[in-house]
Amino acid sequence: READKPLEKRRYPVFLRIDPVKGKEKISAYCIPIYGKGLWSSLYGYLALEPDLNTVKGLTFHKQGETPGLGAEIQSRWFQEGFKGKTILDEKGRLVSITVLKGKLDRSSPQAAHQVDGISGATLTTRGVTDLLMKSLMMYEPYFTMIRRGGVEHGRR
Question: Which of 115, 21, 122, 2 minimizes the C-alpha distance to 67?
Fold first, then answer.
């Protein structure tokens, strides 16, 4: 298991979207697999981040076995669209991830940049989404920090 290895030896998949810009390659997104437990099943998806490695470009779940009309709503467009533009770092650059609320987002809240609307009747599933996002991002944060500091070019050592 990668998580059992020393930090400097760990290898996790990172997918890059590279666009040609004026004859050069430019990374337009970093995408990582995300996975964890919901209420009834394991949840599998992908989280895409903008090149700043802070702003969410998109989120999708491709496999889940949650209750239709409740927890299975994590695959709905309205839920996934809520993550776009959210940020995973606080104002001091610390990883805070994104929290799925129980209820509606208060857009005037100081934490609104790191929160999304919950799903009525799916509290345990959405708690699982919150947990899996933090756990997945924690695995990648040392690598992302190196990129943010300019220590890795085009996501390669």
Answer: 122
User: Can you tell me the distance from the alpha carbon of 74 to that of 122, in angstroms, rounded to the nearest whole number?
Assistant: 9
Exposure of 40 in the CB half-sphere (CA atoms within 13 A): 10
Answer for the pair 53, 147: CB distance below 8 angstroms, yes or no.
yes
Query: pLDDT by residue (tens digit) across 125-146?
Result: 999 999 999 999 999 998 899 9
Q: Is the pTM of this model over 0.90?
A: no
What is the three-class DSSP state of 15? Answer: strand
Give the Cα separation of 92 and 134 in Å (integer): 17
Q: Answer for the pair 141, 85: CB distance below 8 angstroms, yes or no.
A: no
